[in-house]
Design a protein that fits this description.
The complex is a heterodimer of chains A (113) and B (115). Chain A has 113 residues and is an all-beta fold. Chain A has no helices and eleven strands. Chain B has 115 residues and is mainly β. In chain B, the strands form two sheets. In chain B, strands 2, 4, 5, 6, 9, 10 and 11 form a seven-stranded mixed beta sheet that branches. The chains are: A mainly beta (113), B mainly beta (115).
Chain lengths: 113, 115
């Protein structure tokens, strides 16, 4: 089946630092997504990318859809304590005529004030 | 006001029991899902329903039976619970349409502990 591997698995950073995480896949996806999960909650969509090479920003977050369509990265600039959480990449593909979203392994982010 | 609500939030039960988790969405979405998140936080899709019809079933043991009485509800019944079923189960919904189905709205999860 499809596998999405994220790196790093976890990271500790100082408040104010920039963060970068990426996601690679064994399969091609037609849409790449980035979600954030706060403790005790479900994931929330941050950014959606629809085209190979696309670079999209959402406030301090920037994500890119890799040219090969098998990878994506997410950058967070000037991190703040509320950025703490687990970040998931996800890819959307066609499954029997319906769209299916497959999640990556997650990157756990800790921000030290 | 909660968009996707699932109950209960916590469920502790003995091995071999049968239990159900309920999910309701008030977003008017046609598609609903169940995801399982294991102890390593890996999120895996289990089922997807579109307007009460099963469209995705990801090799889940048949002890798990989803039921969708209407498009706003998708319940999950689990028979003969096993230790390995311990996980957080998330319900989600999404609008229909090629460019919208990735906009998954998740519930806050049900933490199932099987003893």
């Amino acid at each position: 089946g499809q596998q999405l591997n994220q790196s790093p698995q976890s990271m500790f950073i100082q408040e104010g630092e920039d963060v970068s995480m990426n996601c690679t896949s064994s399969s091609i996806f037609n849409t790449w997504l980035w979600y954030k999960q706060d403790p005790g909650e479900g994931p929330v969509l941050l950014i959606a990318l629809y085209k190979a090479g696309e670079l999209t920003s959402n406030g301090r977050l920037t994500a890119q859809f890799g040219i090969t369509r098998k990878d994506s990265f997410l950058n967070i600039s000037a991190s703040i304590p509320s950025d703490v959480g687990i970040y998931f990449c996800a890819g959307r593909s066609n499954s029997g005529g319906y769209q299916k979203v497959t999640f990556g392994t997650g990157t756990k982010l800790q921000v030290i004030p | 006001d909660t968009a996707v609500s699932q109950t209960p939030k916590y469920l502790v039960t003995q091995m071999g029991n049968d239990k159900s988790i309920k999910c309701e969405q008030n977003l008017g979405h046609d598609t609903m899902y169940w995801y399982k998140q294991d102890s390593k936080k890996f999120l895996k899709i289990m089922f997807s329903y579109n307007n009460k019809e099963l469209i995705i079933n990801e090799t889940v043991p048949n002890r798990f039976s989803p039921k969708s009485p209407d498009k706003a509800h998708l319940n999950l019944h689990i028979n003969s619970l096993e230790l390995g079923d311990s996980a957080v189960y998330f319900c989600a919904s999404s609008p229909v349409g090629l460019t919208a189905s990735e906009k998954l709205f998740f519930g806050s999860g049900t933490q199932l502990s099987v003893l």
